[in-house]
Amino acid sequence: QDIPMEFKTEGLKAIADSCDGSYRAALQQLEQCIDSGLFDISSLQKEIGIASQQTFINCLDDMLNGNPSERLFNTLVEGDYNANFNLMFKVIAEAETYRIFKALPYGDNEYFVKQAAAYAAHKNFMKVKDAFYKFAVENKDYIKKNCYYMFVCSIIDMCKPETTVRRRIES
Predict the structure, then answer these.
(1) Which of 9, 85, 97, 114 is 20 to 30 A from 107, alpha carbon to alpha carbon?
(2) What is the pTM of this model?
(3) For residues 105 and 127, is the Cβ–Cβ distance under 8 A?
């Protein structure tokens, strides 16, 4: 069967990212794609629960800005929440690596370098990075789904911009 080039470039990367180094899980997801004929990214995300790193780049934008968007909510509740957390943490770890070394551990793709640099410079980055690291350490064996939901919600709350009313009250 003909496999589209988009799948060979984007789909396989999405599978690799979502499997967090598990060869067995990657093979299972690849077999699911081939058996079901799902080769475009949106189908992989909807039908199999495979998310791309780009999905979490978009989500991190929303979290850093305290924006409880529909996109973030859908990503939060769809797919494998452990894989989702690992992908979000990967994006944050890359930004932190860039902040310290001015380089990325997986090569210097211009798009990802710009993203990492922007995140590392964001006013809320250090709070988010520290919260992710603490959550990862505290939940290293198993992340409960509801704890994951609460964690993401707390990040959004922590990063919400202060309103003028709140500033006046505190003054």
Answers:
(1) 85
(2) 0.74
(3) no
